[in-house]
Amino acid sequence: MTTELRRTRMVGLGGFVPERVVKNDDLKQWMDTSDQWIQERTGIRERRWVDWDKKIGSSDLAVEASKRALSDAGMVPKDIQMVIFATLSPDHLFPGTGVFLQRKLGIPVGAAVLDIRQQCTGFIYGTSIADQFIKTGMYDRILVIGAEVHSTGLDLSTRGRDVSVIFGDGAGAAIYAPAVDDVSYIISSHLHADGNSAEDLWTEYPSSKEMPQLDPAEVAEGKTRHFPQMKGRQVFKHAVPRMAESVFEALARNGVPLADLKMLIPHQANLRINEYVQKQILGLPDDRVYNNIQRYGNTTAASIPLALYDCRREGKVQKGDLVCLAAFGAGFTWGSVLMKL
Ligand code: ACO
């Protein structure tokens, strides 16, 4: 006897970015850089950073994005049975940021809360996990969030400029529930990782491996291993084929031609990565790949839900459209989700 599994659909979507706009030229107050360098290499014109005086964490941005997703779904916090929180910039080392969101938003005590650490691929992993729980019937309403406050953890000196000009703060949230028809549902998800390149994009400290964790000489020089480090060319070299593979895998698994894809929502790592994938590999026209990194920078786990949120608000996708979400990030991790929106 075979048991037919349920299918999952996205019933709510929300995005939120802080008000403070930081333009490329604004970065010159901390580092030696230029608008031209940043735009040519990354496509970024500006990003949003939290107001540092206000002690705003990833959970705070997540609250706002989640409220919008709940409103979109016609739900209230008490409807949520499970939270999956993806971030690389948690409020604290532990406990996970999801429980802070639970408390601030008023999600019922006793709900399941799970934090995941898949960086730029976090929303893809989170969506896939939610899909499994809904398919098996364990939960009916799951909130998946990607939220980041990068700006408080970057090396803003010239030494760290290759990384710090890229990242922005923001949050995106989606609510998943059982599908009710053949119009809107998750078709498949695909998850991958390769730990061989873990140190090519990482923040080394704090680390449980070493004590003491702060080298006073390094701190005195303004250099600490608590800042993110990136081998930019290595990231570029892996990101391009992995993002493209993720799209091809999702389409091939379901026998769907690329021509049927209404919109690709790639992780907003760097406009040059996305343009290379779009033009050199997939051959898709501009109106079938959505980017908003120009306005927000790279918001890591938040980037895909934020992009999908903006894309839908701009009327470029609507219910029932075939959409592919694809990501690549630290770990390395990569993957995709194919869905009818
Ligand atoms: N402003 C001005 N000059 C800069 C900056 C900056 N922000 N950053 C680096 N430079 C300088 C360097 O110091 C170097 O100067 P030098 O020639 O005098 O030594 C010069 O620019 C070139 O530096 P490279 O590191 O060789 O720059 P590259 O051309 O490789 O570009 C970049 C760097 C944009 C990061 C590129 O490697 C890239 O696009 N990599 C992809 C990685 C990426 O985008 N990651 C996003 C986050 S990861 C993710 O989401 C998956």
Write the layout of secondary structure elements.
Blueprint: E1 8-16, E2 21-23, H1 35-42, E3 46-48, H2 58-73, E4 82-86, H3 97-105, E5 112-116, H4 122-135, E6 142-148, H5 161-164, E7 170-178, E8 185-193, E9 201-202, H6 216-220, E10 229-230, H7 232-253, E11 263-266, H8 271-282, H9 293-296, H10 303-313, E12 322-329, E13 333-340
Parallel strand pairs: 4-5, 4-6, 11-12
Antiparallel strand pairs: 1-7, 2-3, 6-7, 8-13, 9-10, 12-13
Helix pairs in contact: 2-3, 7-8
Could you characterize the architecture of this molecule?
With 341 residues, the protein is α/β, with parallel strands linked by helices. The chain folds into 2 domains: 8-178, Peroxisomal Thiolase, Chain A, domain 1 (3-Layer(aba) Sandwich); 185-340, Peroxisomal Thiolase, Chain A, domain 1. The chain is built from 10 helices and 13 strands. Strands 1-7-6-4-5 form a 5-stranded mixed β-sheet, sandwiched between helices. Strands 8-13-12-11 form a 4-stranded mixed β-sheet, with helices on both faces. Strands 2-3 form a two-stranded antiparallel sheet. Helix 3 (97-105) links the parallel strand 4 (82-86) and strand 5 (112-116). Helix 2 packs across helix 3 (97-105) and helix 7 (232-253) crosses helix 8. It is globular. The mean pLDDT is 96. Bound molecules: acetyl coenzyme *A (ACO).
Rg from alpha-carbon coordinates = 19 Å
The N- and C-terminal alpha carbons lie at a distance of: 31 Å
Structural class: alpha/beta
How many strands, which pairing sense, and closed or not: the largest β-sheet? 5 strands, mixed
